[in-house]
Design goal:
2 copies of one chain form a homodimer. With 126 residues, chain A is mainly alpha-helical. Chain A has 6 helices and 3 strands. Chain A is 69% helix and 11% strand. In chain A, strands 1-3-2 form a 3-stranded antiparallel beta sheet. In chain A, helix 2 crosses helix 4. Chain A starts with a helix and ends with a helix. At the A-B interface, helix 1, helix 2 and helix 6 of A face helix 1, helix 2 and helix 6 of B.
Chain lengths: 126, 126
Amino acid sequence: MSARNKKVRDDCVAAREVLDRIGDSWSALTVGTLARGPQRFTELQRSIDGVSQRMLTLTLRGLERDGLATRTVFPTVPPSVQYALTPLGRTLLDPVRGLAEWATKHREQIQSARDRFDGASARLSS
Amino acid sequence: MSARNKKVRDDCVAAREVLDRIGDSWSALTVGTLARGPQRFTELQRSIDGVSQRMLTLTLRGLERDGLATRTVFPTVPPSVQYALTPLGRTLLDPVRGLAEWATKHREQIQSARDRFDGASARLSS
């Protein structure tokens, strides 16, 4: 294997690791939402369409575990909990935005390709 | 919601869609491997560490359905099948590489964060 191919392959393995981490897509969406600034759990839940309380809890714990977000408890009554991106988490914004822009730009093309593929499959099986 | 926040949110939803598509990570790895040029199934399987025949078949079909890869059958005996990125698939290389570079650069930092988090959790529960 050439050095260039090895480099490409190592990059791919690394991409797989990070995609396994943030690829559940709730994580990417949560990171994107925290880009606006620190927020409470309920604010996040309102902003992220369709996320359940349980899924958001798991997602935030995953981000905290990976060092991408912090969880700060303020001693109010009742205690309020605020989530924020860490400096490491903020470095993830650029690549996530890169994908988001790609998705926005090519969404219709992908949908057309799917419709064509599904149409061809239906014709083959009829 | 401000126009800027709405933009951020729409981008996030689009990112979620693309991550649901390529976020299984075998897809990203397959796209990355096809960056070297058209390849046969067996070549791809050799290059992608740990992928099963079934998983690679499903992944390639998903990429074909989304218009990101082509499948060409050559009338040899036995027939040989070659996979290649489409022009649309090639546009995905930059954002995927962006993530891969992020992952390569921050892999150790994430691992350290995980070790700290798991250590702290273990201390809390003992």
